Structure prediction request, 107 residues.
Amino acid sequence: MTHVVTESCIKCKHTDCVDVCPVDCFKEGPNFLVIDPDECIDCAVCIPECPVNAIYAEDDVPADQKAYIALNAELAKSWEVITDKKEALPEAAEFAEVKGKLQYLER
Prediction:
């Protein structure tokens, strides 16, 4: 099993999760993070670190977010590893509670 970053991360991209990851499984895109399922060791330390509750264990991903399981795997193949915490995106507060953000995902 792995962990999955879901829609809440889009246009927020807080990186508190990256700072605690013991295996550097997070990959960074322009406005979203993903977890590489081949690198994740299922430790779950990232879950409580996310201020927008975007990270779930694969078995706990909400039904309306299941597409993010495949999306994490796909994007992890082409995005670069992120290992250091950065500032959240400038629009993070504005988009923290927005639903239906897949349209804003930048690949």
Observations:
- The mean pLDDT is 97.
- The helical segments are 16-20, 67-76, 92-95.
- Residues 28 and 80 are 6 Å apart (CA to CA).
